[in-house]
TrEMBL record:
Gene3D superfamilies: FAS1 domain (2.30.180.10). The keyword Signal applies. It comes from the Bacteria. PROSITE patterns: FAS1 (PS50213), PROKAR_LIPOPROTEIN (PS51257). This is Fasciclin domain-containing protein. Residues 1-21 form the signal peptide. Residues 48-179 form the FAS1 domain. GO terms for cellular component: extracellular space. The keyword Metal-binding does not apply.
Length: 182
């Protein structure tokens, strides 16, 4: 009887060790997947949305989301920031010459697309009230843009700011035009 209890205890201990090893393997795989996917893969439905998730949640920014994905900027813009993003609407992209967006989304034009998108981003979190008429500010692409105010309406270059959303890592200012770097 005593040997049966020892054998039973050994089997239970062996099974527990095997289950623990399987769980550890599962956890390592989950960690490896997250590390490869980057910050954008973190699921958090409780906190305030970052600038990428704000755009993803907007039906008016599907073209911008496709462009950010094609330029491999999702993880960069999902990080802590801070960022100020000037987000052209689908209609803003529609104002570009026919075929421009499709051409920019091609893999061979990734660097050009990335430069255009970086011309819409600042590395600071600035509310729309911060900007002054005639103010020139640097963008992530290394060039400057000039802001104008006509009454209470803010413009970045020729694009009108038509709304603003606070994000966890900055601000998203919705604009009605695409800002093309000089």
């Amino acid at each position: 009887m005593k040997s049966n209890l020892i054998a039973f205890g050994f089997i239970v201990a062996l099974a527990a060790c095997q289950s623990s090893a399987e769980q550890s393997g599962t956890q390592a795989t989950a960690t490896e997947t997250t590390a490869v996917s980057g910050q954008s893969a973190v699921e958090d439905n409780e906190s305030q949305k970052d600038v990428v998730k704000v755009a993803v949640g907007s039906p008016d920014h599907t073209t911008l989301v496709k462009a950010v994905q094609a330029a491999d900027l999702v993880d960069a813009l999902s990080n802590a920031g801070p960022f100020t993003v000037f987000a052209p609407t689908n209609a803003a992209f529609g104002k570009l010459p026919a075929g421009t967006v499709d051409d920019l989304l091609k893999p061979e034009n990734k660097d050009k697309l990335k430069a255009i998108l970086e011309h819409h981003v600042m590395t600071s979190a600035l509310d729309a009230d911060f900007f002054q008429d005639g103010q020139s500010m640097g963008m992530v692409d290394g060039t400057n843009v000039t802001f104008h105010k006509k009454g209470d309406v803010l413009y970045i270059g020729e694009a009108k700011v038509i709304g603003s959303v606070r994000a966890s890592n900055g601000f998203v200012h919705i604009i009605d035009g695409v800002i093309v770097p000089n």
